[in-house]
Amino acid sequence: MKFLFPWTSERKTEVRHPPTSAVVTIQDHSTRRVSLRELVEEKCPSLHAPFHPAWWLPNGHLQTLYCVLGDFSQRDKIVYKRTMLRLKDGGTLGLDFTPVDDTNLRPDAPIVVVLHGLTGGSYESYVRAILSPVCLPPSEGGLGYRAVVVNFRGCAGVPITSPQFYSAGHTDDFRQAIFYISTLFPDAPLLGIGFSLGANVLTRYVAEEGQHCRLRSACVLGCPWNLAANNKWLDSTYIGNIYSKGMGQNLVNLLKSHLNSLSQTPEHDVSKAAMTAVALNKPTIGEFDNTFTKVGGGSSPPWPFASGADYYEYASSHKVLGDVRIPLLSINAADDPVVQEVPMDAKGNEWIIMALTSHGGHLGWFEPDDDWGQVRRWIRRPVLEWFHATAEVLQRETPQHLDIREVDGYLTEVGRENLGCRVLDDKEQIIRGTEGQAGILAGL
Questions:
Q1: Quick one: CA torsion of 288, 290, 291, 297, rounded to 10 degrees?
Q2: Which residues form the AB hydrolase-1 domain (predicted)?
């Protein structure tokens, strides 16, 4: 573990490779066998370059606050086409695909699959900052890929249709979304990216899948890793408590918007916990999790948990890093006021590269733009280089996927017949990417 100090003045980005790096096959000018470290050093030069924050956003607090309060409505405009998935347990996910008109893209064009942060969705500025250049045609300087944002239950206008929410430790919803995406585009490489809470979910999913993982690679940004340690840090300082209450109130406000749905099952434990949670007054995120997430954050088993602490023990992603079997790039910032502990050793896993910028805050990484007084996100450069390297240069060994089949109208995986999804309806819904959710602070 590495404990971080937000007053550091260095600009250098620390990139930590394992003692032994996985050996992979790449195809560029010729077919070669190289280490994953060599691939990253050769194809991801921005990762090893220092990040210089905008002069008026010199520390993690200002970077984070700008991520929350900045006006990004005129930047990285994206339009999505939403597909609603009904899950076997009655829950609903919203999958936002872009570009809407993809007729000029080849069927095997890589697809970036996104998991958003705590109470976010496809509208988040940090999501759009990555997907805008990802989906831009190569003739305009982009990668020319498809992308899809998996909006958690209850987020970004997705309804709650069963007595269950989402959390940092529940991976089955993402797993079922992958069933659908990989069936819809069977020849396309899937590249995962997660932000904050979504990064924790993505890391756990990749680790749980091991060699059966359907993703070609993964990238996690601002991952909270050790949930208990980072929550303790937030509770131990005045400014940390402000962040914690901001996130806790965001969760309360999101839950309040779904009370009508949850009230349909008043005797269910999740509904009861929701009624208790919405009565909390400016709770910390720990208080919210100890009231609601321990009960409603996932399916049984292992939910419900006896306490928020037990939920943190289960859901933390730092413990499962040893099980990752695909290339995974992690980037955190040393002055992140929300995440103060990062497992830079990654348990020595040969498939993982850990990077730590000196500045950037929580999902910020704002640097000066070419237009005077404007900023852009530095993070898009190393992330796009990583996507290109792992989708088009890296040659994946024969994957060991389990078969997906349709049973009773649901797509399910052999051995996981308790899970499954189906398209809710064929009605096309267009989503404007800059339109957030009422009552919810963006950027968290």
A1: 80
A2: 110-341
| Residue whose structure tokens are 């079997």 | 325
Q: What is 2-226+317-432's CATH topology?
A: Rossmann fold (3.40.50)
* Token reading at 59: 């520390």
- Give me the DSSP letters along 167-182: -SS--HHHHHHHHHHH
For residue 440, what pLDDT band results from cuts at 50, 70 and 90?
confident
Give the model confidence (pLDDT) of 209-231 as tens digits: 999 999 999 999 999 999 999 99
Asked if residue 26 lies in contact with residue 34, where contact means CB atoms within 8 angstroms, the answer is yes
Residue 215: exposure state from Cβ atoms within 10 A (0-12, 13-18, ≥19): buried
Element (H, E) at 149: strand 146-151
CA of residue 373 relative to chain centroid, distance: 29
The pLDDT of residue 7 is 41
Radius of gyration for the chain, computed over Cα atoms and rounded to the nearest angstrom? 20
pLDDT of 328 higher than 80: yes
Closest CA to 334 of 342, 343, 326: 342
- What whole-number distance in Å separates Cα of residue 349 and Cα of residue 9? 30
């990285």: which residue's tokens? 76
pLDDT over 70 percentage in the chain: 97
pTM value?
Answer: 0.96
What's the pLDDT score for residue 2?
Answer: 46
Report yes or no: 105 and 141 within 8 Å, Cβ to Cβ. Answer: no
Enzyme catalytic residues: 196, 336, 362
Q: Kindly state the tokens that stand for 256.
A: 């309040």
Torsion of CA 102, 106, 110, 115, to 10 degrees: 20
Assess contact for 153 and 164: CB atoms under 8 A. Answer: yes
H-run or E-run covering 422: strand 416-423
| pLDDT tens figures, 120-136 | 999 999 999 999 999 99
- Side-chain half-sphere of 325: how many Cα atoms within 13 Å? 14
Domain segments of the chain as ranges: 2-226+317-432, 227-315
- Report pLDDT for 398: 74
Q: Which residues contact 228 (CB under 8 A, 6 or more apart)?
A: 309, 312, 313, 316
Tokens 């007053």 -> residue = 7
Residue 396 pLDDT > 60: yes
Q: Is 188 within 8 Å of 107 (Cβ atoms)?
A: yes
Residue 173's nearest CA partner among 147, 194, 145 is 194
